[in-house]
Write a structure and sequence with these properties.
heterodimer; A: 113 residues; B: 114 residues; mainly beta
Amino acid sequence: SQQGEEDPQALSIQEGENATMNCSYKTSINNLQWYRQNSGRGLVHLILIRSNEREKHSGRLRVTLDTSKKSSSLLITASRAADTASYFCATDLHTGGGNKLTFGTGTQLKVEL
Amino acid sequence: NAGVMQNPRHLVRRRGQEARLRCSPMKGHSHVYWYRQLPEEGLKFMVYLQKENIIDESGMPKERFSAEFPKEGPSILRIQQVVRGDSAAYFCASSNRDRQETQYFGPGTRLLVL
């Protein structure tokens, strides 16, 4: 599998339900970030979790990181139709200068009324 | 406070033509990243630039692609002699210092090669 691979590829839920997406990666990281992309639009940064952190919250978002399993999960609670989008995890490998992010293929979330 | 701006938003080129994609980073940002997104895929890193310098171009194809970030003006991603396989969305991101963790993305340029 590639660095930053999301699971499932697609998820369809009812409004009000929780949505959980998982991300696995292969090499050591400095941090892991989650982004949202609405259809045909740019990426919106959601949350960043550092390698020494295990859990982080932001509003209805909860991210966990397990460095021993090289995996992360994004939980969206009480989902809304407006949460319909693709969600990507991105890892920062800290190789050389800059923050070269490596993205997974994403999870397409559809929240139905 | 304007975010990252990219233009054009959509670009159609015939095979063999040149494509020029522009990116204006957020105000105060001097670090620019270019990524490419093929249909149904995640973003792939192409190049990282600071003002007047290419820092990391490990993701750039060896031929036909070039990037610059001049002292004045936007960053330019240039694709010469485009082929159909170049059709993709090209995103620019910026940050205000090296090793800043959060990158701010523009809306992207969608290139279609006929």
